[in-house]
Design brief:
Layout: H1 2-15, H2 22-46, H3 51-64, H4 69-82, H5 87-100, H6 104-125, H7 132-216, H8 223-253, H9 276-285, E1 290-295, H10 303-323, E2 329-335, E3 339-346, H11 351-357, H12 368-378, E4 382-387, E5 393-400, H13 404-422, H14 426-434, H15 437-469, E6 471-473, H16 474-479, H17 486-492, H18 498-501, E7 516-523, E8 532-541, E9 544-554
Parallel strand pairs: 1-2, 6-7
Antiparallel strand pairs: 2-3, 3-5, 4-5, 7-8, 8-9
Length: about 550
């Protein structure tokens, strides 16, 4: 029972899709009454005796048209082929099917089957009075106009509504993405500021700490002066610790920035390789022994690569001052054929200097080398850092001259943001316009119009030919005599056409017993009323013309 109830609930929900708000309930009820009333009134005027049945059926089909569009179309086509009452329902069913059947071939199949049912229903009702040659084209033309054209317009309206909804959703999404882009730009800027604070202030504070450490062990200073220098050194260490904490917070909040949007990408180098000499002189002024050398032919560098080389030397010198105070430092810039190699090395820390300067704790945020590797990666390079066999430390960076990867990535990111903010490029926009739903529907309307026009031309030609086949002239009628062989008479008469003469069969004199007759419109006869027609009848029995009549019948 539960399975039956569940299946019933699913069937009802499919046939009557919601939501059923009060306004829709009232609209569907009024539509059902109007459709059913129109069908019933039409059947009353046609005197078919099916007014109540057709009225109820049309009203029910109207309610089910949205949930079961294909089924309603097929039933409406069958009923409309039988009688003219459901014709208005067929138009509405075609509209709904075009709007709600999504797959093109399913829609085409539904209308092809609907036309077949429409034609078969009409033929079964009037099988004796219709010619197949006339039924097929007439039913096709009528079905195209009454069902297919409304379907094309309904499909165009549905696709246009769907396109507008999609554009509205896309606009809302673009607004959200724009807010996200702005937020990510802020995070990237905070990340860049954090990197610059780490590289610049950290280096200067390290130099202050080295200077103060050297003064603290100077024998020429008094105890009070050494105490003041110690306070200065501790203040520098505390400032470095606070700087590390701030940089860590800014870095952590910036981790959501998408890859490929490098920090400081595209900004001019504020130091560059030209500023490396200044860094070396500052370290020498602090008492450190620094050797500096440049090898190879100097090459032009992109702004990002120039800036990265400066920051790498600055961070490497800062680490050397902190972790190996007093140790000799070597800085080298080597211009290789395809890349700039930046190398900073230091030897083992002297024991005496290490003992004198070991009173303070070395402050390290753990992000210096990670930041250097990220800088190098963003310009397409790499960084290697590690101890040397002499118990020293070596940091080497390989930076390509052009920084193609970083610049290309940044350009791609900028292009993506431009697409998000400004919309697709003109070529894609033109392609989108070419895929407008109006194009396909307009092609369908033109095709249907051409088919209907062709059918109309064919119908006119068929009517002219049919009229000629159904008419016999007065001289021919007079020349044929009773008793003439049937084959000779038929060879003299036109082929005949029951479509034009069927209404005359019940009128006129009584048909001779055992005879079969043929009826024609009599041409060239004296005039008659506007609703009257001269009819010629030929009756045959046993292969001989046994009766020939001329009479007037109402058309």
């Amino acid at each position: 029972m539960e399975a039956i109830a569940r299946a019933w609930h699913t069937a009802v929900r499919t046939a009557l899709p919601g939501p059923w708000r009060p306004r829709r309930v009232v609209g569907e009820a009024l539509g059902a009454l109007l459709m059913g009333g129109f069908a019933a009134l039409s059947e009353v005027l046609l005197d078919s005796g099916l007014a109540l049945s057709f009225g109820v059926a049309v009203a029910v089909l109207w309610v089910l048209r949205k949930g079961l569009p294909a089924t309603v179309l097929l039933v409406a086509a069958t009923l409309a082929g039988w009688s003219g009452g459901p014709m208005l329902l067929l138009i509405c069913a075609g509209w709904t099917a075009g709007a709600r059947i999504r797959r093109v071939w399913s829609l085409v199949a539904a209308f092809v089957v609907g036309w077949v049912l429409f034609t078969v229903s009409g033929v079964l009702k009037d099988v004796a009075s219709l010619s197949p040659k006339l039924v097929l084209p007439l039913s096709l033309g009528f079905f195209l106009v009454s069902a297919v054209l409304p379907a094309l317009y309904g499909r165009y309206r549905a696709q246009r509504r769907a396109l507008l909804d999609a554009l509205r959703e896309r606009n809302e999404q673009l607004v959200r993405e724009r807010v996200m882009v702005v937020h990510q730009a802020r995070l990237r800027e905070r990340h860049r500021i954090a990197q610059d604070m780490h590289d610049s202030l950290g280096h200067q504070l390290a130099l202050i700490s080295v200077h103060s450490g050297a003064l603290e062990v100077d024998r020429t200073l008094s105890d009070r002066q050494r105490e003041a220098v110690g306070v200065l050194r501790h203040a520098a260490v505390a400032a470095m610790r606070e700087l590390r904490e701030v940089v860590g917070v800014l870095h952590d909040e910036s981790t959501a920035s998408p890859p490929g949007t490098g920090t400081g990408a595209g900004t001019p180098a504020r130091g560059g390789v030209d500023g490396v000499g200044g860094l070396v002189e500052s370290s020498r002024a602090a008492g450190a022994e620094v050797a500096f050398g440049v090898e190879g032919e100097r090459r032009p560098l992109s702004a990002a690569v120039d800036h990265a080389a400066y920051r790498i030397v600055q961070e490497a010198l800062t680490n050397a001052h902190k972790h190996a105070p007093g140790a000799p430092i070597g800085v080298a810039l080597r211009y290789e054929p395809d890349a700039l190699v930046v190398e900073v090395t230091n030897t083992r820390t002297p024991e005496l200097v290490g003992a004198r300067s070991g009173a303070g704790t070395v402050v390290s945020g753990g992000q210096g080398l990670a930041g250097l590797r990220e800088r190098a990666r963003l310009v397409g390079g790499m960084v290697h850092a590690g101890p040397t066999p002499e118990q020293g430390f070596r940091l080497a960076a390989v930076l390509p001259y052009e920084g193609a990867e970083q610049e290309g990535t940044a350009a791609a990111a900028d292009g993506a943001e431009d697409w998000i903010l400004d919309g697709p490029p003109p070529a894609e926009e033109a392609g989108r316009r070419r895929r407008s739903p109006a194009t396909g529907c307009a092609v369908g309307v033109v095709a249907v119009a051409l088919v209907v026009l062709g059918l109309l031309v064919w119908g006119v030609i068929a009517v002219v030919r049919g009229t000629s086949d159904a008419m016999v002239q007065k001289p021919v009628f007079d020349r044929i005599g009773v008793g003439t062989a049937e084959a000779e008479v038929l060879s003299t008469l036109p082929r005949g056409n029951d479509f034009f003469t069927d209404t005359y069969k019940g009128a006129g004199p009584e048909v001779p017993p055992g005879a079969h007759c043929r009826w024609y419109v009599l041409g060239g006869a004296p005039g008659s009323g506007w609703d009257e027609e001269h009819v010629a009848r030929f009756c045959f029995r046993d292969g001989v013309l046994v009766d020939k009549q001329e009479y007037v019948a109402r058309g």
